[in-house]
Amino acid sequence: MNVKTRNKRRRWIAVAAVPLLLAAMLYGVGSGSVQISVLEIWRVLFGEGEAAHEAIIWNIRLPRVLVGLLTGACLAASGALLQGVMKNPLADPGIVGISAGGGLAAVIALVLFPQFSYMLPGFAFIGALIASLVIYVLAWDGGSSPVKIVLAGIAVNALLGGIMNGIMVLNSDRIQSVIPWLAGGLSGRSWPHLEFLLPYAIVGLGLVPFAAKTSNLLMLGDQSAQSLGQHVERQRFLIIALASLLAGAAVSVAGLIGFVGLIVPHAVRLLLGEDYRYLLPFSMVGGAILLVVADTAARSWFDPLELPAGVLLACIGAPFFLMLLKKRRLIR
How many Cβ atoms sit within 10 Å of the Cβ of residue 7? Predict the structure, then answer.
């Protein structure tokens, strides 16, 4: 793709991003067992709608959609950062063990220390960061190559998953509230969950644009980045820490939702190229749209049952992952 075509595509996608985001929000707010029209949504937002619709939108659907927007943006930004720092399109917080670290910490909090559940985002971030540090140490051998980080991450992911299952087996009388969370989804998410997530998401997403230049330089290779004055190992660690914050914040509220950080950045990369000045913001928008649409579909297509969004995304993401794995030219 030549530069002129790519720039034109970027402009068109930038123009379409906001309408698509609004359309996803309207779909999320209006769809469900009770269908609500766009006109009625507008009336409710201005205090002129029916009382029943007002209760559904303000108390149930709108906070759930807003949580989905932030969670999807966090997961997609985390995946984009990890793919850049590891120079591998298969990197994803769920695959390389970062989400598992946050998940294990959250399970420990929910099962063993439920009195501290109000600190769940903090627990999840600390767990994700510790998992990142462990992966980094295991991959270190005079340096930390992206391939070693991915392989260490997959091993740590398996280990932490086993520990998580062991905790639940040993505390089987306390895991009823944890099982839906493990499946990943936004069921029952409301304003307190949004307040829970908001500070972490603001900090994490606010720092993402500052990682664009460094990510672009790291994509050139360690030697090239060093020749341009970058402290490669330090920058790599800081980006992984930021990805951990984003993944931990998302995991703490939405559970173990996978593949958003894999699918969205790769799709954006195919459309817009490798430049992280565009890749990061459009990944955040794309992640927000994908998770809201997936969650809405999961709760409305199977009515009266509600399928966790994580299950639906896994059904989409697993074949996508296998497709990437099949195309060896994409794996560096």
Answer: 13
Distance CA 173, CA 111 (A): 9
Can you give the pLDDT at residue 325? 66
CB 208 within 8 A of CB 141: no
Average model confidence (pLDDT) across the chain: 84
Of 187, 213, 189, 226, give the one whose Cα is nearest residue 277. 213
Q: Which residue has the higher pLDDT, 139 or 209?
A: 209
Nearest to 27 by CA among 61, 53, 4: 61
Spatial contact of 78 and 243, defined as CB atoms under 8 Å apart: yes
Residues in Cβ contact with 331 at an 8 Å cutoff, skipping those fewer than 6 apart:
88, 89, 90, 324, 325
Question: Among candidates 18, 15, 40, 13, which has minimal Cα distance to 29?
Answer: 40
Separation CA 128–CA 137 (nearest Å): 14
Collapse the DSSP code of 96 into the 3-class scheme (helix H, G, I; strand E, B; otherwise coil) and give the result: coil
Q: Could you tell me the two tokens for 1?
A: 């793709």
Q: Is the separation of the CB atoms in 215 and 225 below 8 Å?
A: no
Distance between CA atoms of residues 132 and 243, nearest Å: 9
141, pLDDT greater than 70: no
* Residue for token pair 């990437």: 324
Contact between residue 75 and residue 283 where contact means Cβ atoms under 8 Å apart: no
Question: What pLDDT does 80 receive?
Answer: 93
Placement of tokens 């994700």 in the chain: 128
pTM here is 0.88
Burial class of residue 2 in the structure, from the number of CB atoms within 10 Å of its CB (0-12 exposed, 13-18 middle, 19+ buried)? exposed
Distance CA 259, CA 263 (A): 6
CA distance 300 to 325: 32
Token pair, residue 256, equals 């173990």
- Taking each helix axis from N to C end, the angle separating 98-111 and 232-254, rounded to the nearest 10 degrees, works out to 40
Q: What is the mean pLDDT of residues 150-161?
A: 85
Q: What is the distance between the alpha carbons of residues 202 and 225, in angstroms, rounded to a whole number? A: 29
